[in-house]
Amino acid sequence: MANVTNVLRIEILPTVPELISVVSAVAAFYPGREKEIMQAIRDAAERRIDELNKQEESAQ
């Protein structure tokens, strides 16, 4: 039986536009689930922002 695997290999410069391009490319692998993926990314970003805010407050 055939084994089919999708592989996404990415090389980027660490810039925001390239990061956004990667997110869009990965989301394309999950048709119909893009909203779920975007919500998970938003949740992770909000958690990280909270962590950064706490670090800033601790530094003051």
SSE blueprint:
Layout: H1 16-27, H2 34-59
Using DSSP, what is the number of strands?
0
Over all CA atoms, what is the radius of gyration? Answer: 16 Å
Give the biggest sheet: none
- Distance, first to last CA: 61 Å
Explain this structure:
This protein is an all-alpha fold and 60 residues long. The chain is 63% helix and 0% strand. It has helices spanning 16-27, 34-59. The longest helix has 26 residues, at 34-59. It starts with 15 loop residues before the first helix and ends with a helix. The mean pLDDT is 90.
Short description:
By secondary structure, the protein is an all-alpha fold. Helix content is 63%, strand content 0%.
Features of the shown structure:
mainly alpha, 2 helices
